[in-house]
Amino acid sequence: MATMIDSLVTFPRHQRATVASIDWDRLAVPEARRLRELGFDEGVGVEVLHRARLGSGPIACRIGRMTVALRRTVAAAISVSVRS
Domain Ferrous iron transporter FeoA-like spans what residues (predicted)? Predict the structure, then answer.
């Protein structure tokens, strides 16, 4: 059974997750387009690798074999669930 987590911002590091939903309305058009181009969509596996020490810095995550840096505002629009 999957447990819902608020967003990538609060998701624990080095734990695999599945993108449960993306709030596309919270994102600017270029940000949403970039996420889609990178392969972010519901059902895709993701893992948080690193967070900047400053509270507003980027979050590095792995999607597929890519490592991607996301702004916290973008990561906050991505809801994930724990992979079983």
Answer: 6-82
pLDDT at 66: 94
Within 8 A by CB and 6+ apart from 67, the residues are 49, 60, 61
Q: How many residues does the chain have?
A: 84
Q: Look at the domain 4-82 and name its fold.
A: SH3 type barrels. (2.30.30)
Alpha helices in 1-84 (DSSP H): 29-38, 72-75
Rounded to two decimals, the pTM is 0.87
Please give the DSSP secondary-structure letter assigned to residue 2: P
Q: Cα 71 to the chain's mean position, in Å?
A: 10
